[in-house]
C-alpha cells in the first residue's frame, strides 16, 4: 500500500505546484490581487486561479479516505491482491481526474473518473472489513 500512497502524494505535490504557479503568475500579471488569497473572495478571478485552486483542494477531500484505508491495511498487516489493485485503480483515476480538471474540465468525464475512484476505495474498505472480520475482528 505504500507505493500507491506515495504516487498519490506525488500527484498532490504536482497539483500544488501547478496551483502555486497559476497564483503567482496571475499576481505578477496583475490579473488578481494578492488580497484575494486572504479569504479567497473577490470579483473577476481568472479561471486558472479558480480551477487549479479547486483541483488542489479536491486532493484533500475524498483521497483522505484512501490514505486512511491504506494505513489501516499497513498497520493491521494485511495485504491482498484485491486491495492492491483497488489502490492503484484509485490512484490512476485520481491522476486522470486531475488531468481533466486542469485541462478541458469536462464535467461528465471528471464525474466518471471521480466515481470510478470512489468505487475503488469502497472496494478497499469492503476488502479490509472482510479481512478483519475473518480474522476475529480487532482486539482492542
TrEMBL record:
One of its GO terms (cellular component) is membrane. It is found in: Membrane. InterPro entries: MAPEG-like_dom_sf, Membr-assoc_MAPEG. Its main location: membrane. Keywords: Membrane, Transmembrane, Transmembrane helix. This is MAPEG family protein. Gene3D superfamilies: Membrane associated eicosanoid/glutathione metabolism-like domain. The chain crosses the membrane at residues 6-24, 60-79, 85-102, 114-134. The keyword DNA-binding does not apply.
Amino acid at each position: 500500500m505504500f507505493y500507491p500512497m506515495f504516487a498519490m502524494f506525488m500527484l498532490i505535490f504536482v497539483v500544488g505546484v501547478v496551483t502555486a504557479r497559476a497564483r503567482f503568475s496571475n499576481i505578477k500579471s496583475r490579473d488578481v490581487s494578492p488580497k484575494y488569497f486572504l479569504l479567497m473572495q473577490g470579483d473577476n478571478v481568472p479561471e486558472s486561479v479558480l480551477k487549479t485552486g479547486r483541483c488542489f483542494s479536491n486532493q484533500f477531500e475524498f483521497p483522505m479516505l484512501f490514505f486512511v484505508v491504506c494505513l489501516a491495511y499497513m498497520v493491521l498487516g494485511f495485504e491482498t491482491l484485491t486491495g492492491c489493485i483497488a489502490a492503484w485503480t484509485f490512484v490512476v483515476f485520481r491522476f486522470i481526474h486531475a488531468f481533466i480538471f486542469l485541462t478541458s474540465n469536462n464535467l461528465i468525464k471528471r464525474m466518471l473518473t471521480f466515481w470510478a475512484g470512489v468505487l475503488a476505495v469502497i472496494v478497499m474498505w469492503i476488502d479490509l472489513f472482510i479481512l478483519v472480520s475473518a480474522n476475529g475482528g480487532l482486539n482492542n
